[in-house]
Amino acid sequence: MRVASVPATHVYVRHLDAPDEPPLVRRLPERATGPGPVPWYPPQMLLPQWVREHRAAFDVFHVHFGFDGRSPAELAELGRTLAELAVPLVLTVHDLRNPHHDDRALHDAQLDALVRAAAAIVTLTPGAAAELRRRWGRTALVLPHPHVVPLDRPRRARRPGAGRVVGLHAKSVRPNMAVLRVATAAAATIARVPGVRLRIDLHDEVVEPGTAAFRPDVTEGLRALRDTYDCVDLVEHPYFDDEELWDYLERLDVSLLPYAWGTHSGWLEACADLGTAVVAPSCGYYAQQRPCAVYGHDDDGLDVASLDDALRRAIADGPPRPADRVARARQRRALARAHHELYHAVLGGTLGAAPARVAAAPAG
């Protein structure tokens, strides 16, 4: 079974193969196309010309990420090309609202083109599946997110009696991050909880004039917050590599997600892998993806009282145990089998028989 996965090198896609068995499918190698930190972006595989030129190399076409770089018309043309060439399209809907777009209209149109063309749709939570059914009348198979942190990475033991830390990572302040309003409310809460610090991280490109991510308003606001509250630490640094990110998450007791919109989160899965509690917003389906404390936050604004309550509960409960590696490995084997069955179903025209078996993959 040969699958053109878009993109093939994303950690989510790589972890759809079993960790200790020969792969059930062969994914096409990915060609580096972009100059930035995400080398596969924009994926050339989404171009109809690429599909025609490489049709003999794959049986199924599976889209995950990267289509935000193509117009709705281009994606509709991709769907028509795949149909003409008798290649089934499988779509995994990770984002029902694009965290990088201020206005949802473009992503809605892009998603509409792909959903209408897809032979089968996968998503990660029941809530996302219900939204897909409501908006498009399509039934999506619900399969859980695999682990993000490598299974063989040693876990750091937490130091007994060490001060507790809540982390808010502003990254490069993408559009869905209401960093200042969430950080301001969180600092006010944490200042009233003895022995707890709020660590706010910020990529240095937000601080440096001339960069695409330059946000002096955010930088000045966070520095003022640090100067106002003794419990606040502000750390400005370049992008973490994977090991640096895992080390950072292991130093936190709680990770606070400052999103005003979104759907699912790989960050949330990494926290679960490492044993870091998460306080997540009420927008999207984060709480269905993984157990976490939830506060009210969406396009309509922030519920400060609920954030105060969620932070206090997460701090009092303490960090959870890291995810069980045996269970995570078992989950990956189930996900590999589920996708293999799904690909055979769309190729054989027997999709109606597949959902019961596919949806049985364990939650980990």
Description:
The chain is globular and about 65 Å long. The protein has two domains: 2-147 and 329-358, Rossmann fold (3-Layer(aba) Sandwich); 164-317, Rossmann fold. α3 packs parallel to α4 (105-117) and α6 (179-190) packs across α11 (304-317). Helix content is 38%, strand content 16%. α5 links the parallel β5 (120-123) and β6 (141-142). It has helices at residues 11-14, 48-54, 72-84, 105-117, 126-136, 179-190, 216-228, 242-251, 266-274, 286-289, 304-317, 325-348, 355-358, and strands at residues 2-6, 26-27, 60-63, 89-93, 120-123, 141-142, 164-169, 196-203, 232-237, 254-256, 277-281, 293-295, 297-298, 301-302. It is of the alpha/beta class and 364 residues long. It contains 13 helices and 14 strands. A six-stranded parallel β-sheet has the order 2-1-3-4-5-6. Strands 9-8-7-10-11-12 form a six-stranded parallel β-sheet, with helices on both faces. A two-stranded antiparallel sheet has the order 13-14.
CATH superfamily of the largest domain: Glycogen Phosphorylase B
Shape: globular
Highest CATH level, the class of the largest domain: Alpha Beta
Number of domains: 2
| Helix content percent band | 25-40%
- The portion of residues forming beta strands comes to 15-25%
Low-confidence stretches: 353-364
Second-tier CATH architecture of the largest domain: 3-Layer(aba) Sandwich
Total beta strands: 14
Supply the helix-strand structural class: alpha/beta
Order of helices and strands: EHEHEHEHEHEEHEHEHEHEHEEEHHH
Tell me the number of helical segments per DSSP (H or I, 4 or more residues long).
13
